[in-house]
Amino acid sequence: MRALRMVDLVTQYEKLKPEIDRAVLGVMEAAAFINGPEVQSFQKELEGYMDVEHVIPCANGTDALQIAMMALDLQPGDEVITASFTYIATAEVIALLRLKPVLVEVDPHSFLIDPEAVRKAITPRTRAIVPVHLFGQCAPMDELLSIAHEHGLFVIEDTAQAIGCTHRGAEGARRAGTIGHIGCTSFFPSKNLGCFGDGGALFTRDAALADRIRRIANHGQSQRYYHDDIGVNSRLDSIQAAILRIKLRHLDTYTQARQAAAARYDAAFSGHSGIEIPARVHWSDHVFHQYTLKLTPGVRDGLQAHLNTLGIPSMVYYPVPVHLQKAYVQADAGDRFRNTEQLCAQVISLPMHTELDDEQLDFIIDSTLQYLNQSTPA
Fold first, then answer.
1. Residue 140 and residue 42 share a domain
2. Are the C-beta atoms of residues 54 and 203 closer than 8 Å to each other?
3. pLDDT tens per residue across span 270-314
4. What is the rounded distance in angstroms from the CA atom of residue 38 to the CA atom of residue 375?
5. Strand 291-295, strand 275-276: pairing
6. Which helix (H) or strand (E) holds 202?
7. What region does 234 belong to: left with phi over 0, alpha with psi -120 to 50, or beta?
8. 181: three-class secondary structure by DSSP
């Protein structure tokens, strides 16, 4: 059996090696390393895949979030609502721009931001909502868009974990990241569509907003040496774009492989009293950036240690919620984050990637059940 990894990028690369090596060598030979033809081609191909008018590549997903907030002209002191159960980058850029992160609760089963918690958090200073499409499925966008429209707020989608996911809502079927005012994604290597370094992109249907995003990502330039906005330097390099072009052609197949692995996990774990399998919401498909179980309290650390002794990796996303992080601690949190804090204490993610085979899945499943049946009988 091949060595188990949370994400098996080695085997994935081996399958694409001739094509990727040829593409990378082509960039090297052309020496068009920055904003070369591969970047332009990837942008157009991703626009087609996402069915969105404007894709603006950038250096990474965190930059994408920052550029989005700059493009919407959010000002210091403005409040931006997001979930406390997420990776820190979502809140980090809010604080970095001297905006105020307003953290809210999530649903305990889907792990997605709770629209009612969003509604209760709105004040006269609120300017934007940042829903996170966590672990591979869309936040409840119809409800969030309705709230945003009612209060005149922007919606910035954090799509880093859900590229290729489809939301079925009032506007019909749309890709995650193309529903709100701006969508942001990451091409970090472990993402469903990942490059071999850092990379990111922004999505929008608004032409004027797209122009501003492009300027901000390029030092605020309208043309070379003419700076209309305060900007940053955030570019996707040509080598990463060349790799992403190849992997984009496989993204739907990759999604199907992840969904098949998730179905195997589901069949094995469903009905066990100590395990809650990932919930599926009715408005979205699930592309399984992570396969995350919610366990009976008190057994997770033992299970993780047990799996580790067998060479099975696992991860806890996330052990400390944003509202309890030292840099963001909210002394008045009270019990407003009961769901989030329970999730941080109970969730565990098992290996989930495109290269999982039956032998590996059986070993992971059997090993997990072996421990949990001793701790929490089925």
1. yes
2. yes
3. 989 999 999 999 999 999 999 999 999 999 999 999 999 999 999
4. 53
5. antiparallel
6. strand 200-204
7. beta
8. coil
Asked if residue 64 and residue 130 are part of one domain, the reply reads yes
Q: Is 1 a member of any domain?
A: no
Which CATH number does the domain housing residue 341 bear?
Answer: 3.90.1150.10
Q: Which whole number is the average pLDDT over 195-222?
A: 97
Question: Which of 248, 275, 292 represents a domain boundary (last residue)?
Answer: 248
Q: For the chain, how many structural domains are there in total?
A: 2
Structure tokens at 51: 């069915």
Helix (H, G, I), strand (E, B) or coil at 365: helix
Q: What's the whole-number average pLDDT of the chain?
A: 96
Q: What is the span of the domain harbouring residue 320?
A: 252-375
pLDDT over threshold 70, residue 377: no
Report in angstroms the alpha-carbon separations of 325 from 92, 196, 285, 320, 329: 11, 30, 31, 7, 5
Residue 21: give its domain's CATH number: 3.40.640.10
Extract the tokens encoding 4: 């188990």
User: Does the structure show a pLDDT above 80 at 185?
Assistant: yes
Give the Cα separation of 157 and 64 in Å (integer): 10
Judge if 37 and 157 occupy the same domain: yes
List the beta bridge partners of residue 40.
Answer: none
